[in-house]
Amino acid sequence: MQAAKQSPIRAARGWIALGALGALTAACVGGDRVAVEVTFPAERSAEPLDGRLILVLSQRTDGDPITHSTYGVGAQPTFGLDVEGWRAGTPATFTDTVFGYPVARLGELPPGRYRAQAILNRYQTFHRSDGHTVKLPPDMGEGQQWASKPGNLVSEPIEFEVGSEGALNRIALSLDREIPPVADFTAKETDWVKYVRVRSQLLSDFWGTDVYLGAWVLLPSGFADHPEARYPLTIFHGHFPSFFSAFRTEPPDLSQPCVYSDRFRVDCYNHTTEEGQYQVYQDWISPGFPRHLVVEIQHPTPYYDDSYAVNSQNNGPYGDAIMRELIPEIERRFRGIGEGWARFTYGGSTGGWEAMAVQVFYPDDFNGAFAACPDPIDFRAYGTVNVYEDDNAYYLDEPFKRTPRPALRDWLGHVSATVEEANLWELVIGTRTRSGGQWDIWEAVFSPVGDDGYPRRIWDKVTGEIDHDVAEFWRENYDLVHIVDRDWATLGPKLAGKLHIYAGDMDNLYLNNAAYLAEAFLESTTAPYYAGVVDYGDRAEHCWNGDHTRPNALSRLRYVQMFAPMMVDRMLAAHPPGADLRSWRY
């Protein structure tokens, strides 16, 4: 078998043994043959830089190569180096000993024409209150997207050819361009949507530097005309919002060229999205629609575009910061009722997990959670891995056959990526759980801190071997089904009637498997019975949210309309004596 046909994991083991994934200074490079040298000019930084230097070699001709890096179908060769104390003008060199994905090493690139581009995802040094000093990519207002992060240094693409015998040209790239800052969020405010930014004392103390939380607040119709009204509040959890994306006061702009959605297999989906956002506005101002505040939170961490809204050893006390600092400030500014019976939470995917998690961890502070397609809520079904019983996350390992575990599928079950592939790509993008990817953020949230100050691995990123001591920590602290089961005697009375879980039975990430386990426990509950909902969409993909009348492409645009009436019903049925059930119902 030729070297170019090696599996990524086999190749990875060899190169990692050479130390290629460890931290490198720019001056300390190895390998027999130099392939790509990267420098940055002194005008970009007079000080030495730390970070992850990412090199993408793409055969696609559209857009920047750095936007083509992925672990799914269409993945383009990507390589990564840690740089510490890297000085202007000093080459950081990619050689054959540098690990890549999906091509494991530069010498294995198939013949053809490529475009090379490099980017430095810059790291900041944090001196945390737990005594650890760590180097991580700070959020710069973009929501932890390394390919568009302000301050990151980028080269211009250079074309080169790999010959039929695999010989590479010597390539030199210079990081001449710096990604500019994002626009001021307050400039996006409207009569309907307001922006809130607060300094979190809890998070600033933890990280040893100023940390801010942001939020977009959708005001109810009639807010200014009813100064006596106080309003219920819902947290619409999800990924980093650069604006309140579910709301639009103008009809869709049909003059814009149609954009096809690969995810939903729908043409002109940009028009569909704008129509859905405009429909939210029309319903929002209609007579009788429930008047309440809807909040989308910005809570990125150095590990991801959001914190998962819980306290974490690696991320810090984000749960308490949101619940005790941000939400009270929003309710103070915008006349929220400010009591748990008048608060709700919903969201999909990451937001679905967060909706259920905050309801479980702060059971008195919310009156209902609507969790659509939640990330794994039971780690016996961590995608296709049982972290407690399986020994390897990447393979079903039997004496005569190793079967890869799938990570991503379509509605017919066609697999486009494995667990191994997704994790190896993340390892290229960032060591020590610093990729900003999905598997790494789960690890950053759920794992204890390691001796080096970074999250302890749930499994070896190269081999897939599971650390069951870490898994046990996950179980006791973040396995939501286990926690609810373990603590039902005290949690049950506080959660009855509040949990609503929805999943498509062909979820692309196999998240429905955990929902089945949740349903099995919840339906067995007594004293009290959970009295909630677990529901499934037939052949529905990620992220089905409980609407049996519309496809995902449309129902995902209707969270506000779907859950507002249910929230009102819940408040009317479960509220304390003397609760304000009138001022906001105009």
Structure, explained:
The chain is of the alpha/beta class. It folds into 3 domains: about 5-180, no CATH class; about 185-380 and about 480-575, Alpha/Beta hydrolase fold, catalytic domain (Rossmann fold, 3-Layer(aba) Sandwich), CATH 3.40.50; about 380-475, no CATH class. It is built from 13 helices and 27 strands. The strands form 7 sheets. Strands 1, 3, 4, 6, 7, 10, 11 and 13 form an 8-stranded mixed sheet that branches. An 8-stranded mixed sheet has the order 14-15-17-16-20-21-26-27, with helices on both faces. The chain has a 3-stranded mixed sheet with strand order 5-2-12, with no helix packed on it. Helix 9 packs across helix 10. The protein is globular, with a radius of gyration of 25 Å. Residues about 1-35 have low confidence and may be disordered.
Strand content: 15-25%
Shape, principal axes of CA atoms: globular
**Helix fraction by DSSP (H/I, runs of at least 4):** 10-25%
**pLDDT averaged over residues:** 93
Please name the fourth-level CATH homologous superfamily of the largest domain: Alpha/Beta hydrolase fold, catalytic domain
For the secondary structure, the number of strands is: 27
Number of DSSP helices?
Answer: 13
Structural class category: alpha/beta
Task: Tag the structure with descriptive keywords.
Rossmann fold; about 575 residues; 8-stranded mixed beta sheet; alpha/beta
Element layout with pairings:
Layout: H1 8-17, E1 23-25, E2 34-39, E3 49-58, E4 78-86, E5 92-95, E6 100-101, E7 112-122, E8 124-127, E9 133-136, E10 153-154, E11 158-162, E12 171-174, E13 177-178, E14 193-199, H2 201-207, E15 212-218, E16 233-237, H3 269-284, E17 293-298, E18 311-312, E19 316-317, H4 318-333, E20 343-348, H5 350-361, E21 369-372, E22 395-398, E23 401-404, E24 406-409, E25 415-418, H6 419-429, H7 438-446, H8 468-478, H9 480-486, H10 488-495, E26 499-504, H11 512-522, E27 533-537, H12 552-555, H13 559-573
Parallel strand pairs: 1-4, 2-12, 16-17, 16-20, 20-21, 21-26, 26-27
Antiparallel strand pairs: 2-5, 3-4, 3-7, 4-6, 7-10, 7-11, 8-9, 10-13, 14-15, 15-17, 18-19, 22-23, 24-25
